[in-house]
Automatic annotation (TrEMBL):
Domain of life according to the entry: Bacteria
CDD domains per the UniProt record, alphabetical: TMR_SDR_a
Organism for this UniProt entry: Streptomyces coacervatus
Name of the protein in question: NAD(P)H-binding protein
InterPro entries reported in the protein's UniProt record: Ergot_Alk_Oxidoreductase (IPR051604), NAD(P)-bd_dom (IPR016040), NAD(P)-bd_dom_sf (IPR036291)
Positions of the NAD(P)-binding domain: 11-106
Length: 288
């Protein structure tokens, strides 16, 4: 692995972006950390970047050779802002692009699926990361995590369907490899954890780790769609509810060896992540 050039990390303050930036720095690479607030992260060069402000594109790209792409959150049509940026990136000298997508969105599918389809035609070196649902959805700032903390419940329309939930640390480890290896993957990579779990399984593990009772409550498709529409655009809410319905039908009941194949180690289990990230909750409960 050769240390050359600069990697632009878009969404550098986010769940995978911050971890990817840290992993690149730890491996000795130069990182330009792009975010709307131009937040300074240890060891990086901060730069302001906003998908909806093309005036920020040029400074972010200056001198960069590789880019980690996190699409604008909650936008049902990210291609409208991403494709002009990607064309500019190619002209500016970016030769490798790694895109964060989703296991639920195939090439040419809705939203970021259109960017997936376009990427190979824009860059000679590329990869599309298609992680399953993040384990951090239950430990961080996601609606599931808030619902766990506030109501002791996980609300989904996924029924008993199982998901190969994946640790954001593992996603970032693959991203670093895809960005810096001598040869780019030049393919899409479905990323999962080591086992497929239902939301009932997740609730049981969180209960055991924190000592606080957590349950999984099933909603109908319409109930989930309407609930989500209160916080995201209606089209995006419908797409997310469709994904839960697909989980209920078995679409995400799978695991892959991608993390181990690219990083040389097994992916982390949900119990490991819960122990690591919910330890404070458990310890606080023990004091009370």
């Amino acid at each position: 692995m050769t240390v050359t050039g600069t990697t632009l990390v878009i969404g550098a303050t986010g769940t995978t972006g911050s971890r990817t930036a840290a992993g690149l720095i730890a491996a000795g690479h130069h990182v330009r950390a792009a975010s709307r607030s131009a937040t300074r992260l240890p060891g990086t060069q901060p730069v302001r970047f906003d998908w909806y402000d093309p005036a920020t594109f040029g400074d972010a790209l200056a001198g960069a050779e590789r880019v980690y792409l996190v699409p604008p959150v909650g936008d049902p049509d990210p291609a409208a802002v991403m494709l002009p940026f990607l064309r500019l990136a190619r002209t500016a000298g970016i030769h490798r692009a790694v895109l964060l997508s989703s296991s639920a969105v195939p090439e040419g599918g809705p939203a970021v699926g259109e960017i997936h389809r376009a990427l190979p035609g824009l860059f000679g070196e590329w990869a599309v990361l298609r992680p399953s649902w993040f384990m951090q959805n239950f430990t961080g700032t996601h609606a599931h995590a808030r619902s766990i903390r506030e109501d002791g419940a996980i609300l989904t329309a996924a029924g008993t369907g199982r998901v190969g939930f994946v640790d954001a640390d593992d996603i970032a480890a693959v991203a670093v490899r895809a960005l810096t290896a001598d040869r780019a993957p030049d393919t899409d990579l479905v990323l999962t954890g080591p086992e497929a779990l239902s939301h009932d399984d997740i609730a049981a593990i969180v209960t055991e780790v924190t000592g606080r009772p957590v349950v999984h409550r099933s909603l109908t498709y319409a109930q989930l769609r309407d609930r989500l529409a209160a916080i995201v655009p209606p089209e995006f809410a419908a797409m997310l509810a469709d994904m839960d319905r697909a989980i209920a039908e078995g679409a995400e009941d799978r695991t892959t060896d991608t993390v181990q194949r690219l990083t040389g180690r097994r992916p982390h289990s949900f119990r490991t992540v819960a122990e690591r990230e919910l330890r404070a909750v458990r310890d606080t409960s023990a004091i009370r």
